[in-house]
What we know:
Elements: H1 2-14, E1 17-25, E2 28-36, E3 42-54, E4 61-72, H2 76-94, E5 104-109
Antiparallel strand pairs: 1-2, 1-5, 2-3, 3-4
Pfam families: DUF3276
Protein name: PUR-alpha/beta/gamma DNA/RNA-binding protein
GO molecular function, one term: RNA polymerase II transcription regulatory region sequence-specific DNA binding
Amino acid sequence: MEVEKKKFEIEKKDNEIIYSKAIKAGKRIYYLDVKKSRNDDLFLAITESKKKVVGYEETSQVTYEKHKIFLYKEDFDKFIEGLEDVVGFIKREQGEAIQRSEEVVESVTAEEGKSKSFFDKFKF
């Protein structure tokens, strides 16, 4: 019983979200979650959630397809460099994107006053 309790506490700690931002983009929602690892290091969990509707009218069922990427702080600079490179390439090839009326769904922080997201410093 004690072992199960410790295992639950470890799993609970692994799933702790320190800061979160949800970005609605068409049929998708991107979640940027800052989490804490077992050794108390912060990392970024990026989740894409896409709504899927199967069937028609009364028989339709809604499900969500999710994909996750975990990004650790030692990889932030390389990731940012690569992301800026590919976004720059796309903009050079196809120009600036037409802005949709999408919005940030929610932004939550564990401590008030720390409302900046990991991606806030980028200008896409």
